[in-house]
Amino acid sequence: MIEGEIDGTDAAKREADAALRGAEEAELAARRESQGRGEELVSPLAEADERVIESALRPKRLTEFTGQVRVREQLSLILQSAVRRGRPPDHVLLAGPPGLGKTTIAMIVAAELGVPMRITSGPAIERSGDLAAVLSTLSEGEVIFIDEIHRLARPAEEMLYLAMEDFRVDVVIGKGPGATAIPLEIAPFTLVGATTRAGLLPAPLRDRFGFTAYLDFYQPAELEIIIRRSAGLLDVALTDEAALELSTRSRGTPRIANRLLRRVRDYAEVRADGVVTGDIARTALEIYEVDEHGLDRLDRGVLEALIRRFGGGPVGLSTLAVALGEEAETVEVVAEPFLVRCGLLARTPRGRVATAAGWTHLGLEPPASLGEPPALFD
User: Fold this and answer.
1) Catalytic pick from 66, 103, 104, 277?
2) Residue 229 needs a FRET pair 20 to 30 A away by CA distance; which of 92, 179, 308, 318 works?
């Protein structure tokens, strides 16, 4: 089992971050195997060695957290109310794409309450006994953070139902007709669950969370603030123009913004005088194949194959993947979400279709048919 304890010090928080590596390392390895290429500079998933850097850049309090204004305000009310009552707050579910700050918010919850924090992940809890071992050692008021909670094993998930409501777990001893369930009281705790796929959570589990926060992508102005703060912590000389350039290419994701900042810093230190200017940022990102909209080589490959080889579509996912030499899952999970969000690609019942914006992004004139209303049975 992967778990860590946080006692409020930076060193302990860095050690606790290691508890989150397992699930993301496996997912990154699977993606790399299917892609057959190196680091995804604009991937929202964290590399294993990035965890150490991220821990140093994480805000420690709600007042330091940038963006997610509505979530921050709601969470502040919940935490302040719990502190005044002297009781643990309701269980919290954080949902949203990777890289938006779910782990950071979970750590802030523990810091604001002034309590220890236990970290684990859904894939690490393979049996109900694993979960019982963690829950039975919690101190009163402690926060337990379960990342990728939608990947919990079913037996552990069912045990969690009772623990969240009645702060009790039933430990089954023996098998068959002679099996006996022994109730085990546990200290009141607060569960903070994080998921990138809220739709996969069973309704009984989702309903047991007293507060659910949906994290949205960040605006460029918010990312600028995050980039300037990270530059200060990393001792990087950064101009306002460079901060703006990085923010517009970060896909609305702080993790990507911090990663681009580090890559641009490397370029500035090796090829320039160490100061990150707008021109330096643009040149460095051109080398790393990240364009002005945040698209990388795979994203542009999907668009180019769809438009130049298939006339803009519609074309099936598997056909598109074969044309790119990639796995269908790689195209669907890694590239498509951002292209759809940017309005460059559309998913239709007949297949993937390039939008007029997609044609324009490649410097091509969109066909006149894209401006016509669809036929009744299209």
Assistant:
1) 103
2) 92
